[in-house]
Design goal:
Mean pLDDT: 93
CATH class of the largest domain: Alpha Beta
CATH superfamily of the largest domain: Spore Coat Polysaccharide Biosynthesis Protein SpsA, Chain A
Helix content: 40-55%
Shape: globular
Largest sheet: 9 strands, mixed
Strand content: 15-25%
CATH topology of the largest domain: Spore Coat Polysaccharide Biosynthesis Protein SpsA, Chain A
Number of helices: 15
Low-confidence stretches: 343-347
Amino acid sequence: MPAITVLMGVHNGAQFLAETMASVAHQSFNDYEFLIVDDASSDASPKILAEAAAKDPRIRVVTNTENIGLTRSLNRGLQEAWGGYIARIDADDVCLPDRLAIQHAHMEMHADHVGVTSGFEMIDADGHRVRTVDQPLDDWQVRWTLGWNPPAPHPTFMFRRCPDGREPIFYDETYRTAQDFDLWGRLSAFGKTSRLSDVLIQYRRHDGAITHGKRHEQAQNCAAIGSGHSSARLPAEISERLEPLMALFSYNAKADPEAIRTAIAGADAMVAYDTATAPSAQHRRWVRQMTAGLLADAILSRAGGLSSPASIAAFVWHGRAHLLHLASAVLDDPGTALKSLRNRKSA
């Protein structure tokens, strides 16, 4: 049995498919199978898959007779998988050569871990770098992040196929999008997870991507999943106070003065709780900076920005405790800040 099953679903992904498959073939770690679920593709994908499988015995192709979507296709792959670990990749992304080796070594060295993600380089349709994320996250930080987002993009995931040591974990087919977010939250109930600083994936964002085409559905699913994680992690009175911030974060409210006030009040309550329970001073600094970035993303980008003098005054006054940390976040990652402003202008 292979140590790892590299799992991929593809539907009409011929544009980038050969590049993705070549990146898996050129891994420095060889004890894997490459299991691909072709979700009834009608382009050149089946031909590309057949030619690659004829040359490489590690490739197994499972073909759906009808299009059933990514979530169900991945579950079919999990039913067919042989590896002890599952390494996800999508048909438009690139595995860097040591991806499997580094993540496998981490999991083998940390028996208490059920999953690990990694740093990544975001690229555009032409393969040009957009930005790089290489900040590591420990298990405490991942659990905090799960209130809002998965710890890293889906193609960076490696996890134990049977996190309880007996039964495989599967995706929740309720979710056509954000299935990775839900899976990582349920996976973390079985043990620790973390994000490595190693940049192991080139994560491609382009107009044909599922997350781009189903942005609203993705936001609503993430809101439901994140709220559930926050409710499990935080006292009830604090998770309830976060609802106005989640409404802004999920594109469900506009940043008027009252929405800004209540959203920041909820963030303040969360920060007070987390800084009192954080394991170290470094974690306390991280929470403050992450919260400032969260407020900026929710209010300045997703909720339409500060469109009136009253909204500007509310943001500056109620958010004054976060402004220094927000400035630090912008200096650390100015590219993301500029992207948020561009998104607001084009909204």
